[in-house]
Specification:
27% helix, AMP-bd_C_sf, 7-stranded mixed sheet, alpha/beta, 3-stranded antiparallel sheet, GMP Synthetase, Chain A, domain 3
Length: 312
């Protein structure tokens, strides 16, 4: 776990820091990056979310998670104080699941910086309706910041970041990249093109004509009835038409190998989205089952637990 004091020491000496991440595989890996790749981004992030020496930051997630360690070090850098409760805080750094739980408590208006998982526009709407200011970013422990916006549908490239799309996969080049990843299975891949280093963690996505960064997530695939289906592509077809959130998983099937199940947080979506699937997806890519949950199970880091959904 990186601390503000350790980061300051490493930065002063031009050194490196190591972060532990389990990613989506659940197996721990270590990400090695220069201290400067964090510290030099602090003023940019502070400016985007309005964090300064008069701010009081609440970071409710585990400090071992890289996004939370970054937030704690960011607060230290700008001189903001840390608080253990939302009461009295001006800023909160959290996952979408933590934001949903926070809204149930109806706290005083906060500046909310959400990361670690996809922030649905509907959840951002709820937060803003309660008086909160909402920021959302997409990144990874290996890549640091890639996109920044109000929610997952409004991301724009973070300053000094370039993105290329190769075969539907996002490749990133920026001053904020890590040096390397240690541990297995390896997630990080690198390439040198146009005189620059580009990294990918396997997330799929695209850049829209109006400059938005569209992130579909890791290219996890399920084989059903002999067809290979990338779950992120199915979710991307359904989510623009959903009132709540929708996650697509594969569940074992004795004859077909697996079947696609769409799990929704809004009952109306389970009724309406099958028609969308029939219009937008080939038969092999349409969920065969639809279910509704009030909330998705989450991992210790606050991300959607797809294995937990699959097992339910």
């Amino acid at each position: 776990m990186i601390t503000p004091a350790a980061l300051r020491t490493a930065y002063a000496g031009g050194g490196t820091i190591r972060l532990t991440t389990s990613g989506t595989s659940g197996r721990p890996r270590r990400v090695v990056r220069t201290a400067a790749s964090w510290v030099d981004s602090f003023d940019v992030v502070a400016g985007l979310c309005g964090l300064d020496g008069s701010s009081r930051a609440w970071v409710p997630g585990p400090v071992a998670a890289s996004m939370n360690a970054y937030a704690v070090c960011l607060a230290d850098h700008v001189g903001a104080s840390l608080t253990g409760l939302p009461g009295g805080a001006t800023h909160v750094f959290c996952t979408p699941a933590a934001l949903a739980a926070l809204l149930e408590e109806d706290p005083a208006p906060l500046t909310v910086v959400v990361a670690g998982d996809r922030l649905a526009p509907s959840l951002a709407d709820r937060a803003e309706a309660s008086g909160h200011t909402v920021h959302h970013y997409y990144g990874a422990a290996q890549l640091s910041f890639v996109g920044w916006g109000r929610d997952a549908d409004s991301l724009r490239l973070f300053p000094a970041v370039a993105v290329e799309v190769d075969g539907g996969e996002l490749w990133v080049s920026s001053p904020w990249l890590c040096l390397r990843e240690e541990g297995e299975p390896a997630v990080l891949r690198s390439s040198v093109r146009h005189g620059r280093t580009w990294l990918s963690v396997g997330d799929r996505g695209s850049l829209s004509d109006d400059g938005r960064l569209v992130v579909r997530g890791r290219s996890d695939a399920v084989t059903t009835a002999g067809a290979t289906v990338i779950l992120a592509d199915v979710e991307a077809a359904l989510r623009p038409h959903a009132r709540g959130e929708v996650v697509v998983v594969g569940r074992p099937h004795r004859r077909l190998g697996a079947v696609l199940v769409a799990v929704c947080t809004d009952p109306a979506d389970a009724a309406a989205l099958p028609a969308v699937a029939r219009r937008a997806l080939p038969a092999s890519h349409r969920p065969r089952r639809w279910s509704v949950v009030e909330t998705f199970p989450v991992t210790a880091a606050g991300k959607v637990d797809r294995d937990g959904i699959t097992a339910s």
